[in-house]
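Before relying on records like the one below, remember that each one covers exactly one chain. Contacts with other chains, cofactors or solvent are not represented anywhere in the record.
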Amino acid sequence: MVAETTVADLKRLLRAEVGCLFGQDDRPWKRPIVEMLRDFRDSGLRVAVFGGTLRSLLYSRLYRHRPGRPRDVDLVIHDGLLRDVERRFREYLFRRTRFGGLQLRRDGWRFDVWTIDDTWAFRGENRYRAKIQNLPSTTPFNLEAIAVEAWPLAGRPREVFSGNDQFFEGILSKTVELNSHDDPCPALTIVRGLVLATEHSFRVGPQLAEYVAAIGSSLTESEFEEQQIRHYGHVRLGASALRNLIASIAKQCGHTERVQLPQLGQLTLWPTWPIPDAGCRVDPLER
């Protein structure tokens, strides 16, 4: 039961889910992911899987009792230059992202790739050193503050980078909370926070609630729509739904530890096709 699950349990489960994602089974949609990770490994780059990809895997297994299918795959390069990645994977290059990374496309899958040094929060004067162990401290939300080695070193399990375990605590408490206050785009932060909470039926933590209540009402409908189109490719929460959520948060803010959002219906990033729960037999990146 989830109520009896510990952070240590979740770390073991997440390692297994990453291995399952890269393993050989009866889910043909995984082939481009496995092939891309093989190419990264063979190029000699050290790579970690990051953020929402891992959340999708763990949430699906923990709360839906089935393997997860992420929307896309976020990869962070430990050591290496972005121009080397661009040259090595130029046949898959789709565009450069607005935050300085690369977006690769392979057989319908999107891979967002950047290096530790190119991470927005590590640029210029800041309180973080540019290293993988500090990456979880830089994410806007607790539910993104996670990275796992794409393939393990010989004789060792995949390393998990989770800062102070805010990611796992958020999964267990079913709470979306602000993690970093270094915010280049308030409208995007509010939209993404509310989409995360609505999609997973999670509550909103006190810091995020205060942030939404203080800033949300000043943002325009066009800002909300523009940010969603740029980030998701389409509008996931309409202006009226967002206004209702913001008003609900503002009303509850300060009166409860965690804010429960009104039900708007479950959002999904993927069609509701059946996902076979095939056993993971071999992880080709485990060697």
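The chain is about 35% helix and 10% strand.
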